[in-house]
Amino acid sequence: MKNTNKLVNILVPLASVLLAFLIGCIVMLALGANPLVALQNLWVGAFGSLRNLGTTLSRATPLIFTGLCACFAYRCGVFNLGGEGQFIMGSIVCCVIATQSGITGFPGILLCLVAGALAGGLWAMIPGLLKIYRGQNEMIISIMLNYVATLLMGVFYTNWLRDGSVPQTVSVPKETMLQRMFGLRFTSAFVIAVVIGLLTYYFLFYTSKGFQLRAVGLNMTAAQFNGFAVRRYILVSFIVSGAIAGIGGSAELLGTQYRLINGFASGYGFDGVSMALIGQLHPLATMLVAVFFAALRVGSTTMQAATGVPTSVSDIIQALVIVFAVAGLAMVKLPEFKAAIDKLSAKKEVK
Amino acid sequence: MDWTFVSNLILAGVRMATPLIFLALAELYSQRSGLVHIGLEGLASIGSLAGFLVSLVTGSPLLGMAAGAAVGILVNMIYAYATITLCAEQIVYGMAINIFAPALAAFIYRVYFGAGSELVQVALMETVAIPGLKDIPFLGPLLFDQTPMVYLAYALVIFTAIYFNKTKSGLNFKAVGEHPKAAATLGINVIGVRYAASVICGALAGMGGAYLTTCYTTTYVDGNVAGRGFIALAAVIFGRWSAGGVLLACLFFGFCDALQIRLQVGSFGVPYQFFQMIPYLATVVVLGIIGMRKAGPKASGKPYRREER
After folding, report:
1. B184 touches chain A (CB under 8 A)
2. How far apart are the CA of B249 and the nearest CA of chain A, in angstroms?
3. In chain A, which stretches have pLDDT less than 50?
4. What residue of A is the nearest CA neighbor of B284?
5. Do B274 and A139 touch (CB under 8 A)?
């Protein structure tokens, strides 16, 4: 029975992806494009060459960070929808330090990453504190703070750190930029993301603190009765989750964008929530899902050039995957469905 | 501080509060039936696109509002099916709607207008003055010389207050959100009420979005809902799940929004973004101050299965 459960948990997201692509193909047909040509271009654009693969990994990096951010908090039973704000706060502090402190090179990078983590963690602490002391809805608070962070970033690129007449901040100095790897588009930021993903996985599944954190997420009341410091876990999970996003913001600024500009990180927060939900809150699966959706986005540019299908079709496919996956995962938990599965496996055993 | 400043502020505040009232009432109906819906932002975004396109094609902002309502209902049926029939987690599915609906809106906009960056604009709904009432000194022109949608919003608030407190059907509705099993033993169709609530919620949320493109700004841009779906959620909490309370909360947030626009015009040498933060910070501060006393429907957020005993 346990094995069928695991199998179903993998099959449902896969089926959702197939279904979403099927609908995507119908939309492409309706737009007068050949879906097969479009899909082929999508594939080539994302994975067709080492160069394209590098671009895909580079696009995946921020999504991995915000995905892990959403994943970590939800494992403790709290919904951190503020990944985007925490990511931006990390990048703002990183930008100030990188451009104003004069510390460059490796110490500069290290300082930026740590400061980014602190900024993200502190920003996430606000909804965390309001949650545990005021019982307040952490989702609304964290979303509101996304808007505040985005606007604050606007102050920096239109005013305080503005680079001449263009509404963007001055660039991070060359010596502080993260290095590209193997001459491809992706940087050591990707490696940092993967390491953090592995650490998250190890912490959640192989340490007693991680076990307790998950226990709080699964059943808060039971955890309370067992004497776990539920409120402390909630606050810590918020801070760590925000810190992951904050490092992501720093890494994105130092590795890819170099400047804060209008639209920086826009949508990354909710994307991260998608990744975490489709990856069923498993850090490793979340990372894989992030790479998959990054590939979809990178590939869609090639697809648009070749077939005229707009790139936003990739957003539709991503959105459909989550609509199907969440509904599908709920469906397989229905008692009727479980009974049907049991019947099927019972039949097999008789044979 | 002169009178024109104050009267302009009130006028703008009433106008800004209206989409919030639609959205907050949508949330109120949903939560009263036991469905916590955090997907209003998404419903509003697709509603605002539908409103924009239909009023562009037909030239009638009223039809635009109707289209917003229709599309809101359609999209919300996905949510309703998943959460009521499939018992999916409501918060998670609301989030799925928040991701799905804006993506759909952005896609339709791109397909309809192509890659061209030309800004398409529509005519806004005309204001209709109510004879007699608009001649009340000072308040008259502010409150009774608005678009029909503003009046509709207030009418809906009054209707909702009466419905939930004075009618049998409304009490049954509330019972479903408080204790679905008890409601079911009284012969109330729990599933039916929740679907009905989802239809109302979808329509109102779609109209809240459509208001933005038919009565407020002349064009559609991605992200034009700008967090109003979540501010409306906060308004329901702030308003303690009652129609009157929700109205006051929406007016408060509406005035915050109006205030930030007025202050931006005044500039004062401060970066305008700080003023734009006002509505969001106000929401955080208000929620932090009131805290979460358990005042909401008790069964809100929990799935209902008929065969469970």
Report:
1. no
2. 15
3. none
4. A141
5. no
Question: What is the rounded distance in angstroms from the CA atom of residue B176 to the CA atom of residue B302?
Answer: 11
Q: What residues in B contact A125, CB-CB < 8 Å? A: none
Residue A323 distance to chain B (closest CA, Å): 6
- Contact of B274 with chain A, judged by CB distance below 8 Å, is answered with yes
Does any CB of chain A come closer than 8 Å to the CB of residue B286?
Answer: no
> Mean pLDDT of residues grouped by 10 in chain B (309 residues)?
77 91 97 94 96 94 96 97 93 93 93 75 84 75 83 95 95 92 92 96 97 91 92 93 94 93 78 92 92 73 69
User: Residue B305 corresponds to which amino acid?
Assistant: R
Q: Which residues from chain B sit within 8 angstroms of residue A155, using beta carbons?
A: 271, 273-274
Q: Look at residue B296 and tell me if it is in a domain.
A: no
Tell me the shortest Cα–Cα distance from B269 to chain A, in angstroms. 11
Q: Which domains occur in chain A, in start order?
A: 34-308 (1.10.3470)
Query: Does B27 reside within a domain?
Result: yes
Contacts of B76 in chain A (CB under 8 A): none
Residue B309, pLDDT score: 41
Q: Tokens 């006051």 label which residue?
A: B248
pLDDT of residue A312: 86
Residues 6+ apart with CB under 8 A from A218: A77
pLDDT tens-place string over residues B67-111: 999 999 999 999 999 999 999 999 999 999 999 999 999 999 988
φ, ψ of residue A114 in degrees (nearest 5): -65, -45
**Closest CB to A151 among B38, B89, B276:** B276
In chain A, residues with a C-beta closer than 8 Å to the C-beta of B97 are: 323
In this structure, is residue B302 part of a structural domain? no
Looking at the 3D structure of chain B, how many domains does it have?
1
Contact B41, B229 (CB under 8 A): yes
Bridge partners, A163 (sequence order)? A166
Which of A136, A143, A273 lies at the smallest CB-CB distance from B288?
A136
The pLDDT value given to residue A182:
81
Residue type, A176: T
Contact A155 B271 (CB under 8 A): yes
Nearest beta carbon to residue A143 from set B86, B110, B230 = B230
Element at B115 (helix H, strand E): none
Chain A nearest CA to B139, separation (Å): 32
Identify the domain containing residue B279 by its residue range: 3-113+152-290
Measured distance CA(B17)–CA(B150) in Å, rounded: 9
> Does residue B191 belong to the interface with chain A, where contact is any CB pair within 8 Å?
no
Residue entry with tokens 């693969």 = A53
Which of B287, B293, B305, B309 to mutate: most A Cβ within 10 Å? B287
What is the structure's pLDDT at B295? 66
Q: Does a structural domain hold residue B118? A: no
Task: Assign residue B36 the CATH number of its domain.
Answer: 1.10.3470
Is residue B88 less than 8 Å (CB to CB) from chain A? yes
**Chain B environment of A154 (Cβ under 8 Å):** 271, 273
Interface predicted TM-score of the whole assembly (ipTM), two decimals: 0.91
Query: pLDDT value at position A214?
Result: 94
A191-226 pLDDT tens trace: 999 999 999 999 999 999 999 999 999 888 888 888
